[in-house]
């Protein structure tokens, strides 16, 4: 892996929200078991801590909608399920970042309404304002929001590094397949290699 220049690097933790990774979240049945089984939240916390200690930026992306979901486009089964279950409403504790990833006061939280963290958010502006050139990804799910955000990062000109054991998907097979794909666009590293 190429050296990481932390002065120009951000760790982006994708969708570390209760609605996604906690057993009682709307997507918990898909992801909570994998998060617990593989210890990915603890690994994400280690990666973020290493970034902070080295002067890097830590950003968390989250999804939240206005009451009544007027800002939700239900063009996928997952988005339709959000509307049907009244999930991801701004202000609901389940939209918060989970404690396990050890968010700190200096971290930035970016809120969006789409799968990719750059869509309709100020994420690119924040990264560019800090001189970020490399984005290190943790989060859930590897094949969905992590991949979508990573693809957007590549299109926006960033070098990407995906932390293999600080991300997960609904199955190990999906996770491994998307790590292989993301490895064609950037680098894949372990928590130990990053932290």
Describe the structure.
This protein has helices spanning 18-21, 28-38, 40-53, 77-85, 123-129, 142-155, 172-185, 191-194; strands at 9-14, 57-63, 108-112, 134-140, 159-168, 187-189. With 195 residues, it is of the alpha/beta class. A six-stranded parallel β-sheet has the order 3-2-1-4-5-6, sandwiched between helices. The relative contact order is 0.21. The mean pLDDT is 97.
Order the strands across the largest sheet as they lie in space: 3-2-1-4-5-6
Morphology: globular
Overall strand count: 6
Question: Sheet bearing the most strands, described?
Answer: 6 strands, parallel
Helix-strand makeup class: alpha/beta
Q: What is Rg? A: 15 Å
The multimeric state of the shown protein is single chain
Number of helices: 8
Strand content: 15-25%
Overall average residue pLDDT: 97
Query: Termini, distance in Å?
Result: 13 Å
Low-confidence stretches: none
Helix content: 25-40%
Order of helices and strands: EHHHEHEHEHEHEH
Q: Which features characterize this protein?
A:
195 residues, alpha/beta, six-stranded parallel β-sheet, 8 helices, 19% strand, globular
Summarize the structure.
This protein has 195 residues and is of the alpha/beta class. Helices cover 39% and strands 19% of the residues.
List the helices and strands and how they pair.
Layout (H helix, E strand, L loop, with lengths): L8 E6 L3 H4 L6 H11 L1 H14 L3 E7 L13 H9 L22 E5 L10 H7 L4 E7 L1 H14 L3 E10 L3 H14 L1 E3 L1 H4 L1
